[in-house]
Amino acid sequence: MSGAYEDESTFDALPPARGRGFAESWWGRAWLKALEDTALDNEQLKKGRARARAGTVGAVTVRPGRITAVVKDRDGTAHRADVLVQELSDAGWDRFLDTAVERAGHVAALLDRDMPPHLVEDASAAGVDLLPGLGDLEAECACGAWDHCPHTAALCYQVARLLDRDPFVLLLMRGRGERRLLADLAARGSAGAGAGDAAAEPEGVRADEAFATGDILPALPSPPPVPERPGEPPSLDTETDPGAEVDPPALEVLAADAAGRARRMLAEVLAGADSSGEGPGGAAPTVAQDAVRLAAAAAAPVPRVVARLAAGTGRDAVGMDLAVRAWRLGGAAALAALEEEWTPEPEAAARAEALVAAAREDGERPALLPLGGARWAGPGGDVQVRLGRDGRWWPYRRERDRWAPAGPAGPDPGAVLAMLLEEHDAG
């Protein structure tokens, strides 16, 4: 570092960051998250990462509320880039200083160039946000961009490396340099030690007084309204290499699915309903069922993720496609009709045969021929009706060499078969 002053520090240009991430500390990664959450165009962030990796960011000047550097394009054109950060008010600094001296080890950690998580959490509880959040990093660039451009993004990625080395860089952005801050902390520590020598009345509420107020406590607030739609899952498109063992698209699918299920369960609980599973009889789905449910729930399925779900449950691509079609028609019950062969108990078999016989006696309906188990064939051998375990009848049609679900279930096998044949004739 060169040119250190009370309220301004200039850091020499850093070498290229090839083969490494820009932030290793948790506070450095939090800085980058604020950048990535703020920027409207991920393509500009990618270009900024590339410029920072190539070492095109010059010396970085940090002063209260602002960081500045000159960033070069590939053709050598230089642009002044600035990023503005909200300074803490005097009252905010007072609360932060009080928080820092309250817990042993906070000041020592700062002197070791460490940002203890408890300090950030305690400060946040006191209403002081040290780390920037969504929308806190405002960009200004000589290139004329109104949002983060490759130049301001490159500056932010370079600053993440500086923050890794020295968290006082963040505190200087927020308004106070290292020397002043340490002097303020020392003064608070001395004042606190002097005050501790005097006997003081312990704070709090007597137990008997707290117990006596039990009957007059206000009622709990009403639960929050159910959101109209699940929240957007986090984007995993960052500059950090996830590693071979992590599949980001699969994680995004799981996150989106978890958000959707959480919203549904909340709605059911607030409505007084029982939030049950999605398997047969209300049971939780099996792994094989849940893989199909995940693939069917995606609005825009990711082919690689669907292929992984298929391989993990022993299905080929066609089998997974048929399973997804079945699930969308009737959930776990429709999937069981597709993939399971079963023989009804005598009483259930008798009821099924009676329905089939009634369809056979109706002159306007075609006959059904038993295939064994819970399956009957229609005329021509290209359509089929299957009895589900719940007593409903599922229509099937042959597609090449596979049987494919052809519609929702119905209570009458004859009507289901007639519908199948009408669609076949219309096609």
Please outline the helices and strands.
Layout: E1 9-11, H1 26-38, H2 42-53, E2 60-63, E3 66-72, E4 78-84, H3 90-102, H4 106-111, H5 117-125, E5 138-141, H6 150-165, H7 168-173, H8 178-196, H9 207-212, H10 248-270, H11 287-297, H12 303-312, H13 317-339, H14 346-361, E6 369-372, E7 375-377, E8 383-387, E9 393-399, E10 402-405, H15 413-426
Antiparallel strand pairs: 1-2, 2-3, 3-4, 4-5, 6-7, 7-8, 8-9, 9-10
Structure write-up:
Strands 1-2-3-4-5 form a five-stranded antiparallel sheet. A five-stranded antiparallel sheet has the order 6-7-8-9-10. The chain is an alpha+beta fold and 427 residues long. It has helices spanning 26-38, 42-53, 90-102, 106-111, 117-125, 150-165, 168-173, 178-196, 207-212, 248-270, 287-297, 303-312, 317-339, 346-361, 413-426; strands at residues 9-11, 60-63, 66-72, 78-84, 138-141, 369-372, 375-377, 383-387, 393-399, 402-405. Mean pLDDT is 82; it is low at 1-5, 195-201 and 276-281. Helix 1 runs antiparallel to helix 6 (150-165), helix 2 (42-53) packs across helix 6 (150-165) and helix 11 (287-297) crosses helix 13.
